[in-house]
Design goal:
alpha/beta, 8-stranded parallel β-sheet, 6-stranded antiparallel β-sheet, 22% strand
Length: 750
């Protein structure tokens, strides 16, 4: 029996749970300015590495029966036709595709006397292509289990965990000798035997979930004093929180060991993780010289801009690293994986190009080296060849967006709203949205910014020093509920210096552990105080429009618009404030005879827009972004667009006029700028998959050029011709007659 989890946890801070301050790492304890200086020094050093060279990647992900069956000539010709500069080849882990000598490193039974990995490595190196060796240690076979029972992950009853899709395999424990003794042997063998440039870790941290083996229970008990929890669902439980921290510490230790192992054999090579989860970018940068984001495809109701979002999220972690976006040509999206089928070429193209527009270097992955269905080949070849012809305009040095959205792993991990188990209506909200919905808020605001054609980036909650965020005019906080006091102070300082924030719903109402505060951590910025109540289900509530004004543009012809479905009760600090939107309280929506209210208007503000220091703040005490994601109400789009426009207090650096659904971005290169227009106009844009490309246009693109530069030539890269343009002061105005899929306005400097 334990004390109240909140009280107990208050007495146990992060450092004590993991065995001392040193475990947090030197960079995590530096002041923001010193941390930024370290980042810049690391960036200057790392840009000398080979990883900055390859712009186009291909991963050939082999299956056990591929040796002797795959067409080597096909792949080498494909690499040539696509001007591929980097490849990732299956080497070992679950299965070895070379003649390994490491005990229990299972060799493909189809390999015979051959060496599939070796022959591809040498052929690619002869073509001048960089090579990463793919390893995956998440599963093992019965012979390894019999010899080393401590290598396998165990459930709470102590039984070995079988692989969920192949019952002949067992899941490995990520915290014992497989990770810290056996895999280093495999890494040394691969890097010491073959001229590889690095090692890529797929499922490098395992796939076993909670492990109750003797190694894990002993290590975790020693580090935290707790037993391994039965699940990680209750993030308020101190044991759960301690486990999440401990698991991260094990991953930092693993990354450091594997990096040292590879470097000791070949100092020019490195290990890079395929995923990084909650890992702190300040510590991740110690070993990661390049990032390869593994979000392969979309499915279900995933939006067409999903790969662009993945690129932005990756860039915010370590903007001083080259980053590639892994996309699959097969049907790999969860929960179903039809690995030998092929997505529609239009879907492949749209997904690939949206990633390109937001800074990804493309990384195509093909599961199984033996190719049954080649319908993907023309789409990838065309995109890669086009990218190669215009490569200089994709070697970005700076994102020119002046709006950013805050990316918060804290909120997604620890924020659990206090909601009843059953809200009574039985709708889809009850099953999903009421237990958080923090990503729904982010997705909703993301969709609004895309539709509003606002170029924007992400910033990470752990990197809020002035050098990182002061370049942005506006930072959007879509229900970023869990923020520490230090993070709130950083955002307060940002606004005081002249920045602006737009925040919604429960932003800053919880600390970094998801514990509710008595008041917002940013109450002074918001201009209101929390009164203690959050309505988790509000039906049939409205906003009275009190215009005209900058926040009601486009809505002044209507007295009332839809409100949200959740509401935070607040009290304004200025009792006489006049809000652009005020509350019409909830009233019955059934039966029809009762759908009316006696309270037609109130003076209760539902938007707080004010100046603070040298900056501006907009706060909306309800879930407008989450509701927009669920209902796509045009009025909510207008409110969100107006809020960002008022906060920015000036034009965006890139503005686009014309029809359709575009995803835009604006980048600088060494001697040019490139403005991207990705045409997502399609009835399938918000549900996989895109069936056809629907050309749209014409467009007028207005660009603010960087200070001190003059344009010498303006080209349209999709049309591959010079563009018509003119200058209006500091603005460059370019006519774009049509966008097929992905037009780039490329401006060379004089």
């Amino acid at each position: 029996m334990v004390a109240n989890s909140g009280e107990l946890f208050d007495s146990v801070d992060r450092r004590s749970m993991i065995g001392g301050a040193a475990a947090l790492g030197m960079a995590a304890m530096l002041p923001p300015s010193a941390s930024a200086q370290m980042a810049r020094a690391t960036m200057a050093k790392d840009k000398e590495g080979w990883e900055w060279g390859p712009m186009r990647w291909v991963q050939i992900c082999a299956t056990e029966d591929d040796p002797g069956r795959y067409d080597k000539a096909f792949w080498l010709d494909f690499l040539k036709q696509t001007s591929t500069q980097g490849v990732c080849l299956s080497a070992g882990g679950v299965t070895a595709f070379y003649p390994t000598k490491v005990p229990y490193h299972y060799r493909s039974p189809f390999l015979g006397d051959g060496d599939m990995f070796g022959e591809l490595v040498h052929a690619c190196k002869a073509m001048g292509i960089r090579v990463l060796a793919r390893v995956d240690p998440h599963a093992m076979r019965a012979d390894a289990l019999a010899a080393h029972p401590e290598w396998v992950a165990r459930d709470a009853a102590g039984q070995p965990k079988r692989h969920p899709t192949d019952r002949d395999l067992y899941l490995t424990c990520p915290n014992g000798d497989v990770t810290f003794a056996w895999m280093p042997q495999v890494l040394r063998e691969i890097v010491g035997t073959y001229p590889v440039d690095g090692v890529f870790g797929n499922r490098w941290a395992g796939a076993a979930g909670l492990c109750h083996c003797g190694v894990c229970t002993t290590k975790f008990k020693a580090a935290s004093g707790f037993a391994v929890p039965s699940s990680l669902n209750d993030v308020g439980d101190p044991a759960t929180r301690a486990y999440l921290i401990w698991d991260n510490e094990m991953r930092y230790e693993q990354l450091a060991l594997w990096a040292r192992t590879v470097d000791a054999v070949n100092p020019q090579a490195f290990f890079t993780p395929g995923t990084w989860g909650r890992l702190d970018p300040r510590r991740l940068r110690r070993t990661a010289r390049a990032l390869f984001a593994d979000r392969q495809a979309r499915s279900g109701n995933a939006p067409a801009w999903l790969n662009g979002r993945s690129a932005k999220e990756t860039a915010c972690l370590m903007p001083d690293r080259p980053m590639s976006g892994i996309f699959a040509v097969g049907e790999t999206a969860t929960p179903y994986r039809f690995m030998d089928s092929v997505q529609a070429p239009t879907e492949i193209s749209a997904y690939l190009h949206d990633g390109l527009a937001h800074g990804f270097r493309p990384w195509m992955t093909k599961f199984k080296a033996e190719v049954f269905d080649k319908r993907w080949v023309p789409a990838v070849t065309k995109a890669y060849a086009w990218h190669a012809r215009h490569e200089a305009y994709f070697r970005n040095t700076e994102n020119l967006a002046t709006v950013a959205m805050l990316h918060s792993s804290q909120t997604s991990t620890y924020y659990v709203p206090d909601v009843p188990r059953d809200m009574g209506a039985g709708g889809p909200q009850d099953a999903q949205s009421l237990r958080g919905g923090s990503d729904d808020a982010t997705s909703g605001f993301y969709q609004a910014l895309v539709e509003a054609r606002v170029p924007f980036a992400f910033v990470d909650e752990r990197l809020l020093d002035p050098q990182a965020i002061d370049r942005y005019k506006v930072i959007v906080l879509p229900n970023i509920a869990a923020l520490s006091d230090a993070q709130c102070a950083a955002l307060r300082g940002y606004v005081e210096r002249g920045g602006a924030i737009v925040a919604t719903h429960e932003t800053a109402l919880y600390d970094e552990w998801g514990k509710r505060r008595t008041n917002f951590g940013l109450a002074d910025l918001f201009g209101c105080d929390f009164t203690g109540t959050v309505d988790q289900r509000v039906q049939n509530s409205y906003l009275t429009v009190r215009g005209p004004g900058p926040l009601t543009v486009g809505l002044d012809d209507t007295p009332r618009i839809m409100a949200g479905t959740k509401r935070v009760h607040v009290r304004p600090r200025d009792a006489g404030m006049r809000a652009a939107f005020t509350l019409v309280p909830s009233y019955p929506d059934l039966p029809m005879e009762k759908v009316y209210t006696a309270t037609r208007t109130t003076d209760i503000p539902m938007i707080y827009a004010r100046k603070f220091g040298k900056g501006r703040v907009v706060y909306l005490p309800f879930d407008i972004d989450r509701t927009f994601w669920e209902n796509s109400t045009a009025d909510h789009l207008t409110v969100l667009r107006n809020a960002v426009a008022w906060a920015a207090d000036g034009a965006q650096p890139m503005e686009v006029a014309g029809p359709g659904f575009l995803d835009i971005s604006y980048w600088r290169q060494r001697t040019s700028v490139a403005a991207h227009l990705v045409n997502l106009t399609n009835p399938m844009a918000m549900r996989g998959y895109m069936r056809e490309i629907l050309p749209a246009g014409p467009y007028q693109v207005r660009l603010t050029l960087p200070p001190g530069v003059r344009p010498s030539r303006v080209r349209l890269l999709e049309a591959e011709r010079d563009a018509t343009f003119r200058q209006d002061g500091s603005r460059l105005i370019v006519d774009v007659p049509q966008v097929q899929l992905h037009e780039v306005v490329a401006v060379d400097f004089a």
